[in-house]
């Protein structure tokens, strides 16, 4: 796991080539310009984060538009308290949804990827492409009969429904990521296991699975993040009382008399888990982005 | 024959749950959705009378739906142009070794980890349409206030509250959120070009511009294509960002097929909702199927 997928995908810049180097003065100007630009964009990117942060600490009178860009006059935590009490139950539900959804679809994806790359059958490529297409479909194109199907199957609204949906619609991307990952595992390893008389499951358990940690990291991050951030399925299959955190947040922020401090604090709270994943596992996060597309 | 089945049979068996699930939840439901879109089920009461393509022709004749397609086009153009521009620019700046590259990369990418719903909370406020001249200055919020206070008051605008171009304002947070992703793609593309290739071109007397024009850009084409496909198909499906920024789902100014489908669903007009879903599916398929065929062919080579 020392070399992450991102390191392979984005190696760090190679040494500057001396050939055709402009004179020193111009190079310094270029470099200054470059860092000025980079910093300018950092500021632009961070503006919304700044606004969220300062507004979340403002009191009701301080949230006046004329002071919108200024720091709070006094740092209040009432907004955070309100956001926390509103969101806490939904946060708990979301963890109950996202963790099993990520684990189950990752496990299935790993087996699929293994079969499709190392235990291929006639037509495997066609099957793979058909599975892959499931990643791109607009869920709007299945939503109407899907609501019917889920109620016919008797899956309760809220977390149980969403669990099924995130597992099923996560399969394509999990399969893709694992298939691409296992392509880099030498086939000789599989052949050797086969020679020793190991069947398909044995080979998986003793050869492939132990090598799969980096693939699992990428897939789990990916599934965790996209299920956590999902709003489309959540809005069709849950309500404020049994919905995940995105639904709770949209209720908190969507009223006519919006409490700005609370809704901004809520947005920050709802983003903490994915941001922690991103900060701790950023490299693998990008690896996941590279290996596929985006659900939602 | 039997030996071959014995050889790949177990694999097929392991894959069976996924094949069944995807078969039911993707393909069968698409078919079912198509069937519903041909019925006259416009109320919660079940109805299975087939009316052919009437729902489609009605939708296409509906000025609201036409407007939602127009919005979708503008949104997609802004989203694509913005993410490609910034993504390429950042990757290009960071391609040459830079101190603190990891830091810049991390900052540019971080919005990607946040949900559209969470970022929509702040963008709703930033894209407030109140302007200084209308409100005597004190009530202005968001970007308009920022523009005013840095002397760019003339650049204030209605943002999303404009029936023709308002949807372009939704592109702003979308670009904010995903430019970093496109940057990561391009960066990987740049780094995938062997240094020897650049050296060889330089020794042959290539100017920097010619180097890019003839050596680097052509190598980036596949990356560019993936970025266009991914951003393009996201734009077609974009729903949560609009819902987060615009309080009323049925707002004409920023209506797109995805939000209109939701409005129809809420109104129990299942046939129309299904038809809109089908239209979105066709649009996505037009983009994605050639791409999937292209990549699976490229892989075989």
UniProtKB/TrEMBL annotation, chain A:
SUPFAM superfamilies: MetI-like (SSF161098). Residues 91-281 form the ABC transmembrane type-1 domain. It is found in: Cell membrane; Membrane. Keywords: Membrane, Transmembrane, Transmembrane helix, Transport. Pfam families: BPD_transp_1. InterPro entries: MetI-like, MetI-like_sf. The chain crosses the membrane at residues 35-57, 94-116, 123-142, 162-182, 203-224, 260-281. It comes from the Bacteria. It is a multi-pass membrane protein. Belongs to the binding-protein-dependent transport system permease family. This is Glucose/mannose transport system permease protein.
Automatic annotation (TrEMBL), chain B:
The keyword Thylakoid does not apply. It is found in: Cell membrane. The chain crosses the membrane at residues 12-30, 69-94, 106-126, 165-190, 211-231, 270-294. InterPro entries: ABC_transporter_permease, MetI-like, MetI-like_sf. Signal peptide: none annotated. It holds the Pfam family BPD_transp_1. Keywords: Cell membrane, Membrane, Transmembrane, Transmembrane helix, Transport. CDD domains: TM_PBP2. SUPFAM superfamilies: MetI-like. Residues 69-291 form the ABC transmembrane type-1 domain. PANTHER family: ABC TRANSPORTER PERMEASE PROTEIN. Belongs to the binding-protein-dependent transport system permease family. This is Glucose/mannose transport system permease protein. The lineage of its organism: Bacteria, Bacillati, Actinomycetota, Actinomycetes, Micrococcales.
């Amino acid at each position: 796991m020392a070399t992450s997928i991102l390191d392979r995908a984005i190696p760090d810049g190679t040494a500057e080539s001396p050939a055709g180097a402009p004179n020193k003065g111009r190079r310094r100007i270029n470099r200054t310009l470059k860092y000025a630009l980079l910093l300018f964009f950092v500021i632009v990117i961070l503006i919304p984060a700044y606004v969220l942060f300062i507004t979340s600490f403002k009191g009701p009178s301080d949230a006046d538009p004329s002071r919108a860009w200024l720091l709070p006059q006094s740092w209040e935590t009432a907004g955070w308290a309100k956001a926390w009490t509103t969101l806490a139950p939904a946060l708990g539900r979301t963890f109950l949804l996202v963790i099993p959804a990520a684990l189950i679809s990752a496990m299935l994806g790993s087996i699929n990827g293994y079969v499709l790359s190392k235990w291929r059958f006639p037509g495997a490529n066609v099957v793979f492409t058909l599975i892959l297409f499931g990643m791109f479909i607009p869920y709007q194109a299945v939503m109407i009969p899907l609501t019917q199907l889920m109620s016919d199957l008797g899956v309760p609204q809220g977390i149980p429904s969403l669990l099924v949906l995130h597992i099923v619609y996560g399969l394509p991307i999990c399969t893709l990521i694992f298939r691409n990952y296992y392509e880099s595992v030498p086939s000789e390893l599989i052949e050797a296991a086969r020679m020793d008389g190991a069947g398909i499951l044995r080979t998986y358990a003793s050869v492939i699975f132990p090598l799969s940690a980096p693939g699992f990291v990428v897939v789990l991050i990916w599934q965790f993040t996209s299920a956590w951030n999902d709003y489309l399925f959540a809005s069709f299959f849950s309500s404020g009382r049994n919905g995940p955190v995105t639904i709770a947040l949209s209720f908190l922020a969507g009223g006519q008399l919006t409490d700005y401090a609370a809704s901004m604090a809520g947005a920050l709270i709802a983003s903490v888990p994915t941001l922690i994943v991103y900060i701790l596992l950023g490299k693998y996060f990008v690896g996941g982005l590279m290996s596929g597309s985006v659900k939602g | 024959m039997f030996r071959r089945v014995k050889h790949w049979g177990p694999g097929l068996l392991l894959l069976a749950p996924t094949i069944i699930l995807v078969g039911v939840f993707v393909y069968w439901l698409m078919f079912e959705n198509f069937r519903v879109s041909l019925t006259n089920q416009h109320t919660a009461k079940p109805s299975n009378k087939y009316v052919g393509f009437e729902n489609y022709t009605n939708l296409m004749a509906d000025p609201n739906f036409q407007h939602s397609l127009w919005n979708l086009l503008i949104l997609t153009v802004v989203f694509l142009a913005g993410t490609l521009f910034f993504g390429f620019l950042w990757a290009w700046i960071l391609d040459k070794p830079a101190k603190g590259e990891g830091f810049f990369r991390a900052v540019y990418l971080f919005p990607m980890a946040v949900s559209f719903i969470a970022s929509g909370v702040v963008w709703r406020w930033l894209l407030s349409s109140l302007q200084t001249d209308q409100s005597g200055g004190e009530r202005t919020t968001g970007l308009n206030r920022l523009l005013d206070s840095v002397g760019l008051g003339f650049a204030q605008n209605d943002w999303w509250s404009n029936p023709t171009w308002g949807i372009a304002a939704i592109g702003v947070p979308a670009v904010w959120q995903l430019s970093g992703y496109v940057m990561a793609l391009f960066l990987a593309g740049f780094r995938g070009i062997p240094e020897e290739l650049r050296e060889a071109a330089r020794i042959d007397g290539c100017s920097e511009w010619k180097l890019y024009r003839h050596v680097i850009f052509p190598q980036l084409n596949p990356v560019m294509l993936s970025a266009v496909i991914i951003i393009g198909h996201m734009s077609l499906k974009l729903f949560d960002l609009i819902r987060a920024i615009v309080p009323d789902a049925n707002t004409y100014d920023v209506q797109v097929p995805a939000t209109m489908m939701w409005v129809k669903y809420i109104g129990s007009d299942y046939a129309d909702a299904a038809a809109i879903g089908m239209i979105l599916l066709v649009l996505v398929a037009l983009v994605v199927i050639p791409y999937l065929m292209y990549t699976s062919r490229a892989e075989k080579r």
